[in-house]
User: Fold these one by one.
Assistant:
Number 1:
Amino acid sequence: MRIVIAEDTALLREGLAGLLEDAGHEVVARVGDAEALLAVVAEHEPELAVVDVRMPPDYQHEGMLAAATIRGRYPQTAVLVLSQHIETRHALGLVGQGSFGYLLKDRVLDVDEFLDAATRVARGGSALDTEVVASLLAASSAASTPLARLSERELQVLGLMAEGRTNAGIAGRLWLTEKTVQTHVRSILSKLDLPANSDDHRRVLAVLTYLRGGT
Amino acid sequence: MSRLELAAGRVAWLAAVVAIAGMGAATWLSLASPGAIADQGASGLTSAWIGVLVLCVLGTRVVRRQRRQPIGWIMLAMAVLGGLTTLAEVYAFVALVTAVWDLPGGAFAGAVSTASWVLGFAGLTWIVFLFPDGQLPGRRWRLLAVTSAVAFTGAWLGAIFQPGKENPPFDRVVNPVGVPWLGGGGPLLVGWCFMIGMLACMMAVAVSAVLRFRRSSGVQRAQMKWLAYAGGLVPLALAGCLLGQLVTGTAVYGEVLFPVALVGVPLAVGVAILRYRLYDIDRLINRTLVYATLTLVLVAAFAATSAAVGVMLGRGSAWATAAATAVTVLAFRRLRGWLQAAVDRLFDRARYEGLRTVDRFLDDLRADREIPQRIAAVLAAALQDPTLELRLWLPARQGYVDCSGSPAELPHERAGRAVTMLERGDTKFAAVIHDPRLRNRPDTLAAVLGHAQLAVEVSRLQAEVSAHLADVAESRSRIVEAGYEERRRLERDLHDGAQQRLVSLGLSIRRLQRSLPDQAKVLEPALDRAVAEISQAIADLRSLAAGVRPARLDDGLAAALADLVRNLRPQVELSACRERAPAPVEAAAYFIACEGLTNAVKHAGASRITLRAEFDGPNLVVVVHDDGVGGAAPRPGSGLAGLADRVAAHGGRVSLDSPDGGGTRLEAVLPCES
């Protein structure tokens, strides 16, 4: 997989690059700000861009804005945004569209999970941080009753669905068979009155729309 | 200036010179001829001088200002007439009465001089008739104009050509130009008709002046008032003469007062036409009424007291005079106040009511029934100008504010508004913006503003104090906001600094771990533990940063509160509106919720906690309610006390209701409009 990295902290940037190269990916460019990121994406048209949210000059959400631009202009380039803290204003809309991921930065320390999420996103899937999902679920359950009808297990499955995981991924995570997961998913979707859909990122979109609408 | 106007100016000067030359000649004659002054007396000549000079000065000034103003020319004509008549009179006197010198034509001069009073009255009548604009009051009055011209001319000619002996003091000679035929029955009757017609015309003119006064407004009204004032002085002078004669027993007052009243009419006419201090007439009438009545009453009191004490102690006693003086002096101040109020009430209702309005307000102010800020409205009512505005001067800001304390400007000079400054000594302290027409009533304006000075000053002081308070409140909220800004910066530093370093460190360990040769795999558990430690440190750091200022506040208060209550037990029932408030308000609301929840979870032992953050009109209201043990109180230095300060800085308030055993309800109201 051909990857570009945009991260202003050199130490972290090199660490990330090393990690991805160790995993057998090709890091074609490493830059420190959003402008340079757009330039290298245009030049290399990579399969994945790993982007820090806060970058020079203003350290606000330059990375997120660049991510949105990339998603709009280069459909073949997926984006994985890394953030220091949860800030969902811009992220949720992009996550639902697929080929996009939003993770807290320290998730890279769980190397396998991180590489899995990167691969998933590069293949057109989604990745949303557990923290974000938990916060969405909390806010949503405070405001809507249908969530209360879900069992504990179903809530777990719903969370993992929102994180963008496939049925297989959920099964592996929860030590369940894929078949059981499928049953849970069907039950959840019908309880929440959502359309059954085999396409993974459409499913994420539906779940996220539901959760956001509920909050 | 056209040639005609230049010529007119020269004619006016010539008239003045002729009049004064006539007076000069008359004076020289009476001084040079022995006995003339002694017999005739100097006072007649003096009043003639005063009259002629006044007429000359006013006539030339009026003519210079308004060439076409007939009143100016009538004045000059009267001056010439006065000068020449006086000369003729003195000439006839020297020739016929003292007869020291043998002068020709004395009898003719006598006849002319004794007939000229008719022309004097004609002039006065025409001045009144044409006053103040030099026009007839209307087309219908033309008949009166013609009639009066005929009547005065007829009466004058009749007086000159009257047959037989001349009028006193020249009744020793026969009129040399007398026409005997005029002594016959028919002509005599016609003569009387002229005389009666003349009187009738004078009355009709008086009626025309009254009508003109009734119809007048603005400038003309003030001009008519001047005329009425001068006209009113004549009976007043007569009353003064009478009184003086009663008290002192001599008629000397009459000789002074009467000419003054007669000079007063042309003077008033001149002032009115030249519009010099035109609008002071109200004050003049007012004060004249007050002081004339005051004089009358005081003289009466003096006379009564001295008579009464005189009866008791004998006439001419020094005690009588002393007692009368004391009574007069003691009565003066009180009486003047009463009379002023009475005159105001009777003749200047607006001024009287205006002062009363201010007085009532001052009373209410002292009794705490009113607030000083209302002074602007009171002044507007007192001066009957609803557009009136008050501007208070704040020296510290070098600017004006209105009564509510917000900065305000004075209007531009040509904005059709008038500005009157209020000053104490040399320093201004306020300005009144009003209708320029109030300047037409300077007496009322000055009296009402002077009366209200204290209230205005109080209002100004209050505005000054509240301006200072506003400054303090503003700086307090700036400090609090700076505090929030500092928290934001700190949070950013934690995230972008320490946290990044920890992640980098963890990443290095992970890479090291993955590059370990197989024989070193025994190290893996230790490295995993190290990374887990680092992960925990990062999580700690994140929650520390969130305590400083939750980054989720960027997503809105609702999102931040949802995060806040997520892991709390017992579970918190949250209802938060998604509408956004200004960032500092949201931050304050967030920390209030934190404080309330901390108390409920840690100390209250509650089983049920609700948290609400909703808009109530322009205010964001945060309520934390639990069913715990209650008894919470904000101790100095506690989190709650600090919160109350912070909320107050936003202009909000915190209330805590926590009865023992009855749960705790913390409510904060935060205004969102700054």
Number 2:
Amino acid sequence: MSEAVIVSAEIAAGHDGQADLIVRVRYQNGVVAPVTLDPDTALKLMSACGVSDINDLAGHSWRKVLEDN
Amino acid sequence: MFDILIKNGVVVDGTGAAPRRADVAISGGKIAAVGLIDGTARRTIDASGRVVAPGFIDPHTHFDVQLLWDGAARPALEHGITTVVPGNCSLSLAPLKAADRKRVVGMFQQIEEMPPEAFTQAFEWTWEDFAGYRAALAKNLSVNVAPLVGHSVIRLWVMGAASQERAANPDEIAAMQSLLRQCLKDGAVGLSTSFVDVDENARPVPSRFAQFSELDALCAVLGEFGRMLQVVPEFYDADLTIARVDQLSELSLRHDIPTTFSPLFDSVQAPNNVSRVMTRVAEQFAQGARVWPQVQTRPIDISFSFLRPSLYFARLPRWMRILRQPMKQRMTALRDTETTGKMAADAETFRMAGAMAGLVIRGGDKAPAAYAGRTLGDVAKERGQSVPRALIDISLEGDLDVAFLSANQGHNVTDRVGPLLAHPLVHVGASDGGAHLMSFATYGDTGFLFSEFVRAGKHLTLEGAVKKITSETAAIWGLKDRGTLAPGFAADVVVFDAETIGRGDERPVFDMPGDGMRYTRDATGIDTVLVNGQVAYANGAYTDARAGVAGV
């Protein structure tokens, strides 16, 4: 079964003046949609994917966002 | 004889009517006449070349605490704001039992970033119920206050510590209904709730433990008074926000109440989010629901220091690795010249040095005062360093407690935000005045509305912009006799220069209790502000007038 995959990630300004992460996720039905992550969640996602550059998030499973580390 | 006669101005009366040359007469705190007036007055204000408009209304603030020692909600008043709505996002200072004060103070400190001295030195807690808080406020007001009551404190009053643990039972919900009913009788203009906020320990605030049935029951009470429900939805997710729009619409229709939610802001990284939400808002309005999205005028900046890892560096792997280390290891790495040399080289390689040059050193922390407000590029040149090296060294010299700002990173494309603000279903607000004190200035949004979206972008006419933040706001909130320059209305008036009204640069000040710091902005182009017929601000200075009303 295919799974949702991160296709890109960008920094965006969050309401509280922090830098948020907007990741674009391609779902199983082909739809690509943005998801906004707060810094803590974004940093956890980066760790779960083993990357320290947001450009390297592309291609990783979106399911990684659920991993607690 | 009138009390005050404002002569020779261009009246923009708040209704959206075209500007017209007229005088404004005031007696007994009310507008007595608008037109070409020959009568005499005890005081005459010459408004030649100036606009005379209703005082502006700020529908989303957190001035709950500040108003107890600063009845002008500085600097809101000097920006032309004559009425503020505190108590947003589920938090208010009443009703609140003495035993629960510490718990609520923690929540306020989390949201408002106010120093602890603000709660221990600046005022005396004399109340528990809403009427008592309103009475405490009324002693010293220069602005009018239309206070919301917070869902979280209502829950806390009824459920105690369990308010942050579980759903309410039927008896508790009934008790909350009774308490809310009393608050509304005592002058609350509505109820605020939040699906997002956390306390100082990152625990959800009490309102987030409520089931829909509880919110529905409370809205039934709001319906008895026709009062507002204010909500913070999961604004970071368009789908969840749309779901909340539907939920609010259901509550609005069932109980015949107005509802409003915020924030809603534009992002070019997710360019369809706002339009999707607005489409659903329009559909719900077409059904008869009142679900007003609040949209701020000011752009959103990104700020950071090396004290906490920021995603600002998310394209610089070495920087991210180092800044995410525990403090001791982080400091060791930043003091190692070989490591920082590689960091500086990375910034050049990954083309971040240029962006870093535009960072503004914010001040108000351990940054040298001489650097505050200047760009990092400018300071780096003065220091004879590369920009990345200066960023690292200035941070180190300030024990990492040096904040930098990357300005205008969100909600910043005038030709996208302007039409949104002009949308007939958008409620201009969401300033958050009095909150986020140490993160960014939440003042001057009204001035920015005129400078950026009337004068520069021409997305709104002068009279359209005035209407948005006066009569329209009053109508949305049910604030009777406010927001319009017409006989019988309260004499809340602002006299300003349409060519220069705006906001000054953000700057740090230490005017909070305990010499606490906050960022602020001065007003430009505002000549005179009257509240209930008394001059509260004129010629760049606050007066001794205390004509503000608590509970308009």
